[in-house]
Amino acid sequence: METTMADISPLMFAPSAPIESLLTAVALKPTASEGMRAMMERQSEFASPLQAQLTGIALDPYGREFADQALDDYWSDEPRKQDLLRTSSADREVVIGSGFHSAVYAATRVLSGYPKPLVLEREERVGGAFAMTARPTFYLNSRNRGGSGGLAGDQGASLNYLPGAPIQAANVSMTEYQANTDMAIVIRLTLAQFADVVTRANVLSVDGDDTGVQFDVDGCGLPRAGRVVDARGLGDPGDQECANGTSILSFRQFMRRMADRWPLRGVRRAAVIGGGDSAKCAVESLLGIAPQPFMAAAALDRVERIDWYTDALPTTCDGWQEQIRGRYQAIGRYLRPDRFGVRRLNVVARRAQPVALPGMALIDGRTYDLVILCTGNRETDIDGLDLGSFDEYETADGSVVARRHFDLPAFRIGPHTRLPFTQRERADGIADITANAVSMFRTATKTAALAATLRPVTRT
Question: What domain of life does the native source organism fall in (predicted)?
């Protein structure tokens, strides 16, 4: 069976059991169902009634919060999880990770006529990096606009697009740049529809023989599968061993703090180390131009000075405007002194290593109330799935869309696949921005193409 992306339609499915249960629960909760009822008045504008219902739930803050909790409760049910692991066999696919690419693979696979994969997530919360917090804490990098998936520069396409999803990110917000939780609800609904998910399933190793693949899942036995798809994303913070959880935080720890109440209480002087997108998002939070923190107010929780240690970014407002893309232009104005000659944000053009002191952190003799480490990610080791055991995998048209294991029926998808830019991507200018190597608009269709063209899993 060979299926192309043109054959895939989100209209080809009925609500799954968890989605049906979710719709029923929301309908019975008056405070959560208002958005769903209101959106059904515009049902004719949607491709299906289900899409209208889910859009209404996601647009209503009370509906979305209730839906998120209902999904968490469903996925955390221990008997259901144990039953899924116990019944997994050599004719099933297992996906490691429950983020964006896991959802892309599951949706495309099911809509192409194949069984639901089993998704293993080591954390309690499903949704990957976008769902690291239940409250909005950072903005997506690409502008919010409708349309199907496409490339940067195509004004008729959406870069925040998840192929096959029941709803798209553009359905759930009309802000110019969407918060992380907008993509999170899309991912979570997609997995609820197209996958069987097991949370708190930490895969320690993967091995194989003539009968398929065997997983060592911490505390959960040795389930089997016929194929494994590694969709673990970018990995864990690179310098997390330097973080002490109080005065020195990794990016993930900082975002989780920003989702809590009064996240910047007592922080007057802060430092950010690193120059990538995570660092820019952290700086936005410290400046107060990220999504509104919970229970925070300028009169009580204002950071007075931010030192940004990086040798990869402009140090002046003019330089920032010339070199930095539009998504982060708002940061640049803080590099200009105010009318009193004070600059709240200072880019320090050098690398730094913080030292934890009691109640504070130290960098080059200067003390800070808080330091955020945004120095990249490193892969989480799973014995048997190291990158050196994989080679590039091409579809029939010659496109490299994933990596395939030399010995096991295993594939790598998503940003940790480290697929090089193609000649076409270089010619189109996509490779001019280094961060595009792991961007959703570049990698989503590659994952979808793999899911649509892989042959069924069969017993040996």
Answer: Bacteria
Range of the domain at 179: 5-235+380-453
Q: Which of 130, 121, 21 is nearest to 76 (CA)?
A: 121
What Å distances lie between residue 170 and 39, 174, 191, 451, CA to CA? Answer: 15, 7, 18, 24
* DSSP letters spanning 223-268: -EESEEEE--TT-EETTGGG--SSSEEEHHHHHHHHTSBSTTTT-S
132 phi, psi to nearest 5 deg: -65, -20
* Chain segment 120-175, per-residue pLDDT in tens: 999 999 999 999 999 999 999 999 999 888 877 777 789 999 999 999 999 999 99
Confirm if 190 and 107 have CB atoms less than 8 A apart: yes
pLDDT for the residue numbered 9: 52
Q: Are residues 189 and 313 in the same domain?
A: no
Question: Cβ distance 442 to 413 under 8 Å?
Answer: no
- Tens digit of each residue's pLDDT (9 = 90 or more) over 57-78: 999 999 999 999 999 999 999 9
Token reading at 295: 């229970």
Same domain for 353 and 403, yes or no, is no
Q: Do residue 263 and residue 168 come from a single domain?
A: no
